[in-house]
Amino acid sequence: MKTIAVPREFTKKILDVLKRRYSTKFSRVWHNEVGLMGLFIHEEYVFRTSGYQTICVVVEQPPAGNKCSITVVSSGGGKGIFNMNWGFHGAAGNTLIKTIKQLVGKGL
Questions:
Q1: What pLDDT shows up at residue 44?
Q2: Would you say 15 and 31 are in contact if contact means Cβ atoms under 8 Å apart?
Q3: Of 72, 106, 105, which is closest to residue 91 (Cα–Cα)?
Q4: Separation of alpha carbons 103 and 10, rounded Å
Q5: Hey, what's the torsion of the CAs at 6, 64, 56, 28, to 10 degrees?
Q6: If pLDDT is split at 50, 70 and 90, which confidence band does 108 have?
Q7: Among residues 43, 64, 74, 87, which is most buried (max CB within 10 A)?
């Protein structure tokens, strides 16, 4: 599990990217008196390991303040005699964090 904080002005663009790329199983964004909360669940099959990986992303933005918190939880399941996943789910989580940092770094 990894959590990063990004400037509030990038929240909409990040939500758009998450909806397009990381929501194959579930995607929902709530707006209420405690702020904004988004949940995205993505699952995909990885050919090189014959297993599945799942990425869960939670976006939280309180009504006050200038930061948005993004938490990424990745998991994976292997297949075969040893049921090994070779750690590919960790790499998927790192890829998402890197993508978000690049979006923020570019100034969108």
A1: 86
A2: no
A3: 72
A4: 8
A5: -120
A6: very low
A7: 74
Residues forming a β-bridge with 59:
38, 70
Give me 106's structure tokens: 């570019």
Is residue 97 within 8 Å of 72, Cβ to Cβ?
A: yes
Asked whether residue 107 carries a pLDDT value surpassing 60, the answer given is no
Question: Which amino acid, one-letter code, is at 70?
Answer: I
Q: Is 92 exposed, middle or buried (0-12, 13-18, 19+ CB in 10 A)?
A: buried
Separation of CA 47 from chain center:
21
**27, 18 in Cβ contact below 8 A?**
yes
Q: Tens of pLDDT along 22-53? A: 999 999 999 999 899 999 999 988 776 677 78
Task: Look up residue 53 and give its two tokens.
Answer: 């990986």
